[in-house]
Amino acid sequence: MGTNRDEVIVGLDIGTTKVCCIVGERTEGGIDIIGIGTSASQGLRKGVVVNIESTVAAIQEAVEEAELMAGCHIGNVYVGIAGAHIQSLNSRGIVAIGKDREVSDADINRVIEAARAVNIPLDRQIIHVMPQEYVIDENDGVKEPIGMSGVRLEAKVHIVTAASTCVQNIVRCCNRVGLTVNSVVLEQIASAEACLDPDEKELGVALVDIGGGTTDIAIYYNKAIVHTAVIPIGGMHVSNDIAVGLRTPRGEAEKIKMREGCALTSLVGEDDEIEVPAVGGRKAQQRSRQILCEIIEPRVEEIYMLVQREIQRSGFEDLISSGVVLTGGASTMTGMVELAEEVLDLPARMGRPVSVGGLVDVVGSPKYSTGVGLVAYGFNHGQPVSSRSQVSARQPGGFKRAMNKVGNWFRKIV
């Protein structure tokens, strides 16, 4: 049943509310999504692992589901990371090239190393060093310096750091399931790979990925990432507000939010009513939908105001000509785009995974942006790994267990 696919990349989005495993395959037309698995996540809080066992179980379930759908074994993954511990900065490095010499790969590596030589605390580690532009002598704005002549080479880079323990816990959870982590990728960078248009990146755009426990921000300008940040508030906080305000269980509050929620009270009719299940087996009540919106709107407004403060703090406020792209599971609620335009005073749109084939109807929702983006990141920045080499890295999962049972059954008959 397991097919050998030569260029398979797997993205693993370990979120606060769900774990999502997406399998992509390189085709002539680009990337085809061939498998997807999801499971409820309860081992994370605000994007950070707080329960190893729960997280491992959720990863196992999602990976086995994706394996079954894709028909191949999963051994290597690109995994997303988020949380308030994420910090970023812009840095620069300078190296001498030498007279009458062209810039080579070795020079690029040297100048990137010089740029990443920044003082960071011992309990933190660098997870990304992304070149923004190069300067050769006095000529700035160079994107591809290889082959050019000059005496001095300068690189401007964006560096993302994370708490070492948070990275180790995510890697440990994956290893416990028998997965090898190819790379740990900042979630909003992955989402940007899936959702943003190249023209938006050039003109200036802010990606706002509203997940369950965090809201992740990435600002692009002149085709390069210039600022990243994480706000520790997300869609789960909206659900908690609904649970308290309407006196309903949290699980029901989440369902009400997705089914009836609206971030802008003015979009809701005065006569609209919703059914609210009560706590402890009491009878369900009919409540005005406007009351629900009055609970949701202030929290979403708070998220957007924190986003606005972060954009202002970055210093790139005036360069976001394309506006804001909203993505992530919580962004699908009615009125999110309209309220974003109102609070941020910028044009806004919903961001969905684009430029992928295969199971597009399944993964076309903003809640899969990070998962699809991790696959795209793997194809664009990493090495696709064939499933032949993946089998050895994988501990017996659902597919292998099933095969083992079949083998035992045959042995008993013989």
Brief rundown of the structure:
By secondary structure, the chain is an alpha/beta fold.
Attribute tags:
414 residues, alpha/beta, Dna Ligase, domain 1, Nucleotidyltransferase, domain 5, 38% helix, disordered C terminus
What does this 3D model show about the protein?
This protein is of the alpha/beta class and 414 residues long. Among the domains are: 87-163, 2-Layer Sandwich (Dna Ligase, domain 1); 198-351, 2-Layer Sandwich (Nucleotidyltransferase, domain 5), CATH 3.30.420.40. The chain contains 13 helices and 19 strands. It has a six-stranded mixed β-sheet with strand order 11-6-1-2-3-19, with helices on both faces. A five-stranded mixed β-sheet has the order 14-13-12-17-18, sandwiched between helices. A four-stranded antiparallel β-sheet has the order 7-10-8-9. α1 (52-70) crosses α3 (164-176) and α6 runs antiparallel to α8 (289-314). Mean pLDDT is 87; it is low at 1-5 and 386-414.
- Residue windows where pLDDT falls under 50 for at least 5 positions: 1-5, 386-414
Task: Please work out how many helical segments DSSP would assign.
Answer: 13
Oligomer: single chain
DSSP strand (E) fraction?
25-35%
Instruction: Compute the average pLDDT.
Output: 87
| CATH topology value of the domain at 198-351 | Nucleotidyltransferase, domain 5
